[in-house]
Structure formats: C-alpha cells, structure tokens
Design brief:
Length: about 110
C-alpha cells in the first residue's frame, strides 16, 4: 500500500499513558521523521513528559535553546524529557539547525 510521505512527516501522536485525570502527569510522543519534528502537544503541563521518537536514519537531538534539556537521539531511538518547569522552551536539533520547535508548558 502506498504511504503518503507528506502526511506522515507532520504526524505527532498524543498518547496519554494513563487514564485521564486532572492531576495526573502525562507522557506525549513527538515523532521525528524526514528531518522534521512532529507537531508538539498543544497543552503541556508542568510534570508532563515528552518522549522524542526518532524514526529517521540520522542521529538527531532535542536541545533546548536555554539549556534546560538536551536529549541525544540516535537513529531509530527514543529519549524522554520531563517538563519540570513552566515556560516557553524553544528547541532545535544540534546537527540540523533547521529542525526546530517550541514547547509551551503551563501550570
Ligand atoms: Cu537532526
């Protein structure tokens, strides 16, 4: 079956790992595919976690501009960032500066 590359490139999966609850922290997956970060979850809260899933054949990183996180992501691997603080965190890949995004973390 043909795969639509354009569609796949933009996909991010939002997968709460536990049952919905106002207080529970959640884990979201941001897929990196075809040299792009997927869509970042829109309503992150302090205490949530982001799992970065690198589906590319290239090594990437998820590196915060302010140094608050720096996740190494070898080809095909995942890495996790726990969002301890509220704020707006720009991030990019060390190796591919055109790959970038922003995490907005609220209370
Ligand atoms: Cu990269």
């Amino acid at each position: 079956m043909p795969r639509c590359a354009t569609f796949v490139a933009g996909v991010a999966l939002f997968l709460p790992m536990s049952a919905p609850s106002a207080a529970a922290s959640r884990t979201y997956v941001v897929v990196i595919d075809k040299m792009k970060f997927g869509t970042v979850p829109p309503s992150l809260k302090a205490g949530d976690a982001v799992v970065w899933e690198n589906r590319d054949m290239f090594r990437h990183t998820a590196t915060a501009t302010d140094g608050s996180f720096d996740v190494d992501l070898p080809a095909g691997k995942k890495g996790k960032t726990v969002l301890a603080r509220t704020g707006t965190f720009a991030f990019s890949c060390k190796y591919h500066p055109g790959m970038r995004g922003v995490l907005r973390v609220s209370k």
